[in-house]
Amino acid sequence: MKHEVYYWARPGKQNTDKTMEVALKRGKQLKIKHFVVASCSGYTTKRLLKKGEGISIISVSHQVGFRTSGQSEMSKKTEEYLTKKGVTVYTGTHFFGGLGRAIRFRFGGLEVEELAANTLRILGQGVKVAVEIAIMALDAGLIPYDKEVISIGGTGQGADTAIVCLPKHGKEFFSFDVREIICKPRLRK
């Protein structure tokens, strides 16, 4: 099998539109209908929505309180807009966060989840994010089990990474299968 992999010169938001284009192109080639996208403000999801037709979009955001206690990073207006356009918006605790992060914040040290996250970051922040949000979407029942999806992540804001993957539930983390890297930054931050 032959397929192009795209490498961006540097990570960041400036790669968002091109990332969406190549992800959608690969999705069409593989007949993949489910796209999971990391989006805190809704910007990245709107970019995918603008370019993609006939696909199921699952937008995954940080949990409420990630930046500021009690507050969501996505406005209600944006969430309502996306929902009306057929997007499933999911806000939940990071797979690589949660209780382990709370223990680290309180007592210091290294959590198992953080070790796994940092290992994935060897391939870039976007790969880590793409794996994490696919697990979160599957654990929430928002994508079908045992079907390939395209998962889109980024470094900071926007999108710069897309993968084809066969996600597994969090309890089956080591069976998660990254089948293809569609695009990613050539350099880490």
UniProtKB/TrEMBL annotation:
Q: Pyruvate kinase C-terminal domain location, by residue?
A: 18-163
Q: Domain of life here? A: Bacteria
* UniProt-listed InterPro entries: DUF1867, Pyrv_Knase_C, Pyrv_Knase_C_sf
Pfam short name (any one): PK_C
What is the designated name of this protein?
A: Pyruvate kinase C-terminal domain-containing protein
Phylogenetic classification of the source organism = Bacteria, Bacteria division WOR-3
